[in-house]
């Protein structure tokens, strides 16, 4: 078995107004990986490629140790996915829906599906059209988890959910990781939640991977620096900053060398831990970037 859940080598996909790649990307097995980037950055296209919903123009895609070109049917049988807007037939009841869905998966587990429905408080006698947004998401997640998938892919899993449901979902996803065999890829704009649960973060922008790093490495590497604009007249401090943003009140920027900043500029600066949102914002708004694996 490979130690990578997903691997992309030289993958490209071109549209009239957008170019993805070339992407070189490795996602480790047995971890939660967060997938972030601005709207239109290529997240959806990349996830569609990984799920075999569209074909790459160039490059190779391997999922769970298999080639998407050669073993697409086997791969899809081992993937559970949940979209932000789930295309679930709403006139059905849960049992009717299960009778349709289970035919698509060789390892469908009726007992496990029933357990998740009970755990989520889903009524088997109620039509899906009468479910709340949170209940519909729970149903989609129950389906994704009930055929012993080795890879779970979620697109904006907390979108439109209340805080209690979001916390319940996040706790469940972390429980799924305990066997060390399940891998989870989450595309989300909620960077705060990803910081809490993701082991790795992939940041994509303008069709290119900006970084693919462990969450711990990102926390250790980056700091958010604030100070008066006048300091930016010194080229030595500018050389230590990334993604500088200015306002009438001062500047904010990222830095990977705060020791030098402290030694040379001391009390003139405020230095604090950079959140994932800070890193994403200043990287996008700053200079052009090259892919970095940390």
Automatic annotation (TrEMBL):
Keywords, alphabetical: ATP-binding, Nucleotide-binding, Transport
PROSITE patterns registered for this protein in UniProt: ABC_TRANSPORTER_2
Domain of life: Bacteria
Pfam families per record: ABC_tran
The keyword Transport is assigned to this record: yes
SMART domains, alphabetized: AAA (SM00382)
Protein name: ABC transporter ATP-binding protein
């Amino acid at each position: 078995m490979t130690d990578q859940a997903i691997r992309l080598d030289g993958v490209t996909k071109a549209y009239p107004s957008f170019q993805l790649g070339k992407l070189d990307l490795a996602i480790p097995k047995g971890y939660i990986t967060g997938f972030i980037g601005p709207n239109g950055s290529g997240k959806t296209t990349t996830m569609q490629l990984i799920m075999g919903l569209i074909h790459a123009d160039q490059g190779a895609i391997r999922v769970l140790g298999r080639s998407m070109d050669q073993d697409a049917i086997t791969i899809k049988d081992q993937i559970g996915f949940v979209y932000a807007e789930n295309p679930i037939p709403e006139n059905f009841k849960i049992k009717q829906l299960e009778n349709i869905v289970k035919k698509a998966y060789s390892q469908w587990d009726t007992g496990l599906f029933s357990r998740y429905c009970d755990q989520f408080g889903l009524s088997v006698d109620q039509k899906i059209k009468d479910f709340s947004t949170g209940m519909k998401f729970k149903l989609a997640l129950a389906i994704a988890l009930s055929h012993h998938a080795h890879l779970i892919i979620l697109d904006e899993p907390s979108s439109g959910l209340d805080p209690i449901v979001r916390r319940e979902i996040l706790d469940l996803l972390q429980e799924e990781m305990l066997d060390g065999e399940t891998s989870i890829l989450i595309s989300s704009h909620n960077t705060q939640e990803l910081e809490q649960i993701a082991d790795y973060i992939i940041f994509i922008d303008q069709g290119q991977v900006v970084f693919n790093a462990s969450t711990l490495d990102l926390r250790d590497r980056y700091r958010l620096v604030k100070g008066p604009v006048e300091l930016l007249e010194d080229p030595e401090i500018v050389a230590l900053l990334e993604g500088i943003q200015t306002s009438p009140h001062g500047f904010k920027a990222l830095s990977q060398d705060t020791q030098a900043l402290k030694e040379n500029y001391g009390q003139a600066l405020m230095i604090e831990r950079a959140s994932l949102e800070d890193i994403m914002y200043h990287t996008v708004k700053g200079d052009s970037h090259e892919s970095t694996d940390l």
